[in-house]
Amino acid sequence: MAGRFPGAKNVDEYWQNLCAGRECISFFSDEELLALGVDQALLNNPSYVKAGAPISDIEMFDASFFGFSPKEAEVTDPQQRIFLECAWEALENAGYDSEAYKGWIGVYAGGSLSSYLIENLLLTNFYTLESLSRQFPASNDKDYIPTRVSYKLNLKGPSLNVNTTCSTSLVAVHLACRGLLNYECDMALAGGVSIQVPHQVGYLYLKEGMASPDGHCRAFDANAQGTIMGNGVGIVVLKRLEDALAEGDCIYAVIKGSAINNDGSAKVGFTAPSTSGQAKVIAEAQAIADINPETISYIETHGTGTILGDPIEISALKKVFNASTEKKGFCAIGSVKTNVGHLNTASGVAGLIKTVLALKHQVIPPNLHFETPNPEIDFEDSPFYVNTKLSEWKTNGTPRRAGVSSFGFGGTNAHVVLEEAPPQKLSEKSRPWQLLVISAKTDSALEMATENLKSHLQEHPHLDLADVAYTLQLGRRAFDRHRFVVCQDIKDAVSALTANSQRVLTHHQKPTLHPIAFMFSGQGSQYVNMGRELYQLEPTFQEQVDKCAEILQPHLGLDLRHILYPNSEQTELATQQLQQTALAQPALFVIEYSLAQLWLEWGIRPVAMIGHSIGEYVAATIAGVFSLEDALAVVATRGKLMQQMPTGSMLAVPLTEQQVQPLLYSELSIAAVNAPSSCVVSGPTSAIEALQQQLAAQGIDTQPLFTSHAFHSAMMEPVVQKFTQRLQQVNLQPPQIPYISNLTGTWITADEATNPDYWAKHLRQPVRFSLGVSELLQQSDSILVEVGPGRSLSTLTKRHLEPSAKQLVLSSLHHPKEQHSDISFLLNTLGRLWMAGVEIDWSGFYAHEKRSRLPLPTYPFERQRYWIDSKPRSLSASALNDKKPDIAETDKTSSSQPYSRLNLGNPYVAATNELETQIAQMWQEVLGMEEVGIHDNFFELGGDSLIATRLFSRLQTTFPVELSMRKILFQAPTIAQQAEMLDRLLFEKIAELSEEEVNSILVN
User: What is the pLDDT of residue 502?
Assistant: First the structure.
């Protein structure tokens, strides 16, 4: 839900006011009214009531957020602007991002006649109806309230404008329910808005009219003489109950039934109420709800406090209830109009939201100003009583139920039957660490969103942090500014979100596609308990490890899990076993393959891969070259054969391949080229020791590797033939995902991948990782993720990066010497991927959990004043007709002031020449901005097709060249690009002209 009401900027404040029994009517002094332009003679009129029910900041709007240009924003009816903001807030309050939601979202809404159009635009002499209709045809017609929301929020369901005067918003709710039950949409926004200008002014009281003589609404009271018209907006998000339960939504209440009808002509007059019409709509709604009226214990009435209307409404209610029960005084009634006045087209949804909150909190707010019953209403002989204090909503075992009525001028009636939300299943146990993500369009909004979240968590310390994380991930849109933190509980989250916390990471990243590359580690990086926490807590990882271990058991003669994850007494033995090649290689394969499957489930899908030695087998399996069963059998054979060879050693040497080659004895081989100045030499232990001493004498530090054998050397030659024979038994398939070959250092071909000889050579020949990763890094905006234990490949890859490189290199598991939670480490990597703009599959991330959406703080709009002030009322009609400005003139004069440049991702750059200055001036006029940078994008500044047409017209009139709107605006959407294009076209034009024609143009 979302809304703004008199005295309340949001639904929470609204509820607080209702519970406190606050009357949110404003009473104005003469000085305030005079300052607002109210005539002194009107103030002196004894019938002028100096009261109103305004809402705050109607002139404010976050134009940049919704892609409005300043000029469009200032001429758009505040009803449309505020309803649009509330629509966004309502969806976020429900825990949904409209772009990510896969179903259809409908909009059912209505508003009042645009008094802003009449009072502020037409009377300013800035606009005529003709100029407005040509420039901004959809800005002030109430018909466009729902469709503008659908357009701006990209909603694909029905978008219906509803107008039945006072009952508009409750009729909209009914139609939304019908749309949902007919499967025309899967979610619906329903509500209404009414904002009148002049805003903070009083009104003239007319005897026996609808308006109150003193600014108070006394519904059902003997002294009731009418209501006071108010302002507000309210929106509810609706879904089919079964869907809401299945998707873990926060359910405030359930609409059991709804109905609408019209009085027809059987009443005193067109605007008069009808007992019969009201009774029929209430009875129909109850029949659809299939409930006994005796189970309804509260009615939110239309309750306008008029002498005629209140008795008719109670009479209609009695007629319906008395048809099935003789019980007296069991059903409370109230009217929110006693708190906030009559909100016209938003009044029905205001009553609905009040009642929904009453059901949720199980208390009924007081009905104000009730002392003595209206003499025409016999409450004692009815099921009803007026609730005059904040009361606990008791129940005798039946679910709490309520009715909400809204009746419109012209006779369209609506009634809704509500029931308290059913018990919902508690969320399941989750990971011990959670990833909280926050995003915004600007730096300042990001800071405010962070502060709002921290404050909310402080105020609600018993929230389930996993549900908080879930809601932020699935229910908030990712913008250019990203921030995340990984934390354990609410207290830890609050602590981490405090200022200057090093755990909170922030990045500014425009939406872009980043190709992902997986890097699979080689032997030597393994350690006991690698990924143990993932095995314990991540079902997919565990499932894959178990599957691999079971396949490997007949090949290894043991359960690999006992070595990967031994008990404390067996850790030392397992560490020794894991150094054996016959076990180390299968263990690495299992962990890397299982990690890859987990990443894939979370939506991290590689477009390329590289593996280091044994790691290439994982890449080939992910790419579909090997089946999992074949890969595991081959890896087990490979490890066993290599284990059978005489032991040897390997030495990391910080020299280039060309520098190392002359140093090699006949028994030594280059096993790997990992970086431009990082090679690994492999061979017999004695030869390796001799090389190490030789290099030490030259002052070159080397590093022996912790291996049992001399891999990728001549010492592996005896097993090549046996391994080839084993590979010939395998059905090898062409790769479905490109990956880099260790042998060639470039993209593997289908012929290579499916040739057993390739894999046999792979065992013997050097690993050309440096060449391969350099090939991967040709993609300048790629993200490389090491999928395996530790960060050996990440470290090597970073050595290949230029200082200005944009590639991101990440790892999946911590180094064995680091004391980190595996979950925390992996979530930090996931957060960095999200922060870089990678789209995460959150449904996959939560595939094994049942989570709930929570109402959390919504986007912190950065509102600015976009408003054209009205002229004094003394302006005569003849003066208005003196001048009818044309469109070009309104471009220059209509704004009350030039607005600041919108907050874009790129910095402001001023015009550098006369042509750019001339174009910039046109942009500023059509957009209504004080300044525009030459690299600002026209459409990011709020430009649309209508504004584009006006700009194109100006350009075409000013420059004597043939222009195409598609080229000049869609292919050149910045001033710098347009200036470059025009400069070229002008040069070509001049080249075609005679000297006389050129001089004529220059003179003009």
Answer: 85
Is 166 catalytic? The answer is yes
- Flag whether pLDDT at 1001 surpasses 70: no
Yes or no: say if 71 and 951 are a contact pair by the CB < 8 Å rule: no
What distance in Å separates the CA atoms of residue 229 and residue 236, rounded to the nearest whole number?
Answer: 22
Please calculate the CA angle 687-689-691 and round it to the nearest 5 degrees: 70
Confidence at 893, pLDDT banded by 50, 70, 90: very low
Query: Residue 959 above 80 pLDDT?
Result: yes
Q: Are 965 and 981 in contact (CB under 8 A)?
A: no
CA distances 106 to 86, 101, 189, 254, 470, Å, are 15, 12, 6, 18, 24
Would you state the pLDDT for residue 524? 84
Catalytic-residue membership of 613: yes
Tokens of 585: 């290689």
Choosing from 159, 297, 521, 613, which is the catalytic residue? 613
Dist CA 58 CA 53 (whole Å): 13
Closest among 336, 339, 341 to 352, alpha carbons compared: 336
Tokens linked to 432: 């011990």
d(CA 282, CA 293): 10
Closest to 267 (Cα-Cα) out of 205, 316, 195: 316
DSSP H/E element including 926: helix 914-927
Specify which residues 505 forms β-bridges with. 484
Question: In the block, which residue shows the tokens 């694909």?
Answer: 156
Q: Which tokens go with 521?
A: 């580690």
Rounded distance between C-alpha atoms, residue 84 and residue 80, angstroms: 6
Name the catalytic one among 24, 69, 139, 166: 166
Residue 569 DSSP code? G
Integer-rounded Cα radius of gyration of the chain: 36
Strand 401-407 to 412-420 pairing: antiparallel
Pick from 844, 841, 611: which is nearest to 745 by CA? Answer: 611
| Cα–Cα distance measured from residue 909 to residue 936, given in angstroms and rounded to the nearest whole number | 8
Query: Is the pLDDT score of 81 beyond 50?
Result: yes
Structure token pair of residue 633: 């059998």
Contact 219, 310 (CB under 8 A): yes
Quick check: helix, strand or coil at residue 946?
Answer: helix
Which sign, positive or negative, has the C-alpha torsion 603, 604, 606, 610?
A: negative
pTM of the model: 0.89
Please count the other Cβ atoms lying within 10 Å of the Cβ belonging to residue 407. Answer: 30
* CA dist., res. 172 & res. 190, Å (int): 6
**Helices 615-622 and 581-601, interaxial angle, to 10°?**
40
Band of pLDDT at residue 271, cut at 50, 70 and 90:
confident
Catalytic-residue membership of 460: no
Sign of CA pseudo-dihedral 736, 740, 744, 746: positive
5: which strand partners? 8
Beta strands 159-161 and 60-61 are: unpaired
One-letter amino acid identity for 274?
S
Choose among 355, 325, 326, 351: nearest CA to 340.
Answer: 351
Q: Which structure tokens are listed for 943?
A: 């430009």
Taking residue 295's Cβ as centre, other Cβ atoms within 10 Å add up to: 19
Q: Give the chain's count of helices (H) and strands (E).
A: 41, 31
* 1004, pLDDT greater than 60: no
Catalytic residue chosen out of the listed positions 302, 369, 482, 762: 302
Task: Identify the CA nearest to 173 among candidates 423, 399, 401, 355.
Answer: 355
Stated as kind and residue range, the H or E segment containing 181 is helix 168-181
Rounded to the nearest 10 degrees, the angle between the axes of helix 615-622 and helix 628-643 is 170
Cβ atoms < 10 Å from Cβ of 726: 18
Which residue type sits at 517? A
* 524-550 burial code (b ≥16 CB/10 A, e <16): bbbbbbbbebbbebbebbbebbebbbe
Under a CB-based contact definition with an 8 Å cutoff, are residues 283 and 316 in contact? no
814 noted as active-site residue: no
Report the C-alpha gap between 182 and 157 in whole angstroms: 12
